[in-house]
User: Fold this.
Amino acid sequence: MIEVKHIKKSFDGRTVIEDISCVMKAGQCNLIIGASGSGKTVLQKCIVGLFEPDEGEILYDGQNFTAMKGNEKTQIRKEIGMLFQGSALFDSLNVQENVMFPLSMFTNDSFRKKLDRVNEVLERVNLQGVNRKFPSELSGGMKKRVALARAIVLNPKYLFCDEPNSGLDPQTSLVIDKLIQEITVEFNMTTVVNTHDMNSLMEIGNYILYMYKGHKEWEGNNKEIIFSKNERLNNFIFASDFLQDAKAMRMLEETGQIPDHRNFPLDPEKGPDPKPGSA
Ligand SMILES: Nc1ncnc2c1ncn2[C@@H]1O[C@H](COP(=O)(O)OP(=O)(O)O)[C@@H](O)[C@H]1O
Ligand SMILES: [Mg+2]
Assistant:
């Protein structure tokens, strides 16, 4: 669990994070959402200690990270895995070397032991047998999976992902989201994901913090978001008329006023709307 308490951050007198507090639980995906420039990346960097907040505290499983000295912080950092925006793989290293990098940095394990661990995590992200390929030979989705394997190779308790779906098509995005969620549950990690991907919210949003111009505008989960009356949130998430309609439909379904459409899967062979008398 990560507790964020009254975090503030300014750059050159301009407030970028304004008094943010939240609780991010283990074993679930905690999403930070908001428009571009709303402060998601700065908040995530404050939480992991890449930026020092001007005010406030960050607690990792009850331990006050903000008050820690250098070597104590290093202990917590070893338990943090990060999936950077754009994957940030080393282009001159192959997949195996990329994933092994943190093991070589932080452990004294033998090559054999490191290789076993690399193969274990590559298998976990469904990428067995690509050890010798270079990043330039991989698709966007495969690069993300290699980056995810590298992020979890040290068995972190906390996983941070900044826009894991940027540059991916919607279907590949869903695969990555599902993988992040499965791994989160399997290893009981506290996972923090920055995103502005609408699909991610609905699929993996166990906890959602919506930021608006540096402050917390709304928090809740992917069920509650359907019912939210927050206008800024609704304008951001359900931006199009189509999505406004979809939200209205889901609200009616959730409250039992109309049957849940998911109980009536469409038959792709027949099409959605057979003409009367055509059967
Ligand atoms: N290192 C920095 N120095 C000064 N301003 C910054 C720095 N990093 C981010 N900002 C500013 O903070 C605001 C929030 O940025 P960011 O957290 O990257 O937004 P998001 O990730 O939501 O798109 C932006 O206005 C950005 O220009
Ligand atoms: Mg960002």
Remarks:
- DSSP finds ten helices and ten strands in the chain.
